[in-house]
């Protein structure tokens, strides 16, 4: 097990693919042989972003997406064929980057986290950790993001405190166990395929 504390002051910023806003990039991975880190070489990415005004989502061919509201409420994503209800915070929705989606804000701006992965390169999961309890962690990369205030977790028998807004990156080569001890966190899990 390898753990790395990603500090919020070291997060980078980058524009949305369609230029409509700015991501706060928390962690990501790109193909090692790619000359540049861009949407084509992306393997996975975990980021937060505010959604301030209604508008279209970026078109991202070959990308699977998970999204969760972490501040504010009332977000609805609408496509021609379906609606994704994120009105309540900490509800995860899953959709493909090819979907035509427009946001609707029923109660003002929101802050969301996004976990994206190249289809076929990784399997992804995004959940809120809101109460004490144990959960198994499979082999892969796991990001524990302290959403609101410091949070405490236990990995196997080792305890960690994650400062507000920071993220603990956990890289596992064998299955492990995670317990939320205190606070509120979002867990993003990335499991390589193949």
UniProtKB/TrEMBL annotation:
<dbReference type="InterPro" id="IPR011051">
    <property type="entry name" value="RmlC_Cupin_sf"/>
</dbReference>
<dbReference type="Pfam" id="PF05962">
    <property type="entry name" value="HutD"/>
</dbReference>
<dbReference type="InterPro" id="IPR010282">
    <property type="entry name" value="Uncharacterised_HutD/Ves"/>
</dbReference>
<dbReference type="InterPro" id="IPR014710">
    <property type="entry name" value="RmlC-like_jellyroll"/>
</dbReference>
<protein>
    <recommendedName>
        <fullName>HutD family protein</fullName>
    </recommendedName>
</protein>
């Amino acid at each position: 097990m390898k753990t790395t504390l990603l500090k919020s002051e070291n997060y980078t910023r980058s524009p949305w693919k369609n230029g409509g806003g700015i991501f706060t990039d928390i962690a990501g991975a790109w193909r090692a042989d790619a000359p540049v880190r861009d949407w084509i070489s992306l393997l996975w990415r975990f980021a937060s972003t505010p959604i301030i005004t209604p508008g279209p989502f970026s078109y991202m061919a070959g990308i699977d997406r998970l999204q969760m509201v972490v501040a504010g409420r009332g977000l609805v994503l609408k496509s021609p064929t379906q609606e994704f209800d994120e009105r309540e915070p900490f509800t995860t929705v899953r959709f493909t980057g090819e979907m035509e989606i427009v946001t609707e804000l029923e109660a003002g701006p929101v802050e969301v986290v996004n976990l994206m992965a190249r289809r076929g390169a990784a399997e992804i999961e995004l959940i809120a950790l809101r109460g004490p309890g144990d959960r198994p962690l499979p082999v892969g990369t796991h990001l524990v993001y302290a959403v609101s205030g410091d949070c405490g977790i236990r990995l196997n028998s080792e305890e960690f405190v994650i400062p507000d807004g920071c993220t603990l990156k956990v890289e596992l080569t064998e299955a492990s166990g995670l317990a939320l001890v205190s606070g509120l966190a979002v867990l993003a899990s990335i499991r390589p395929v193949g």
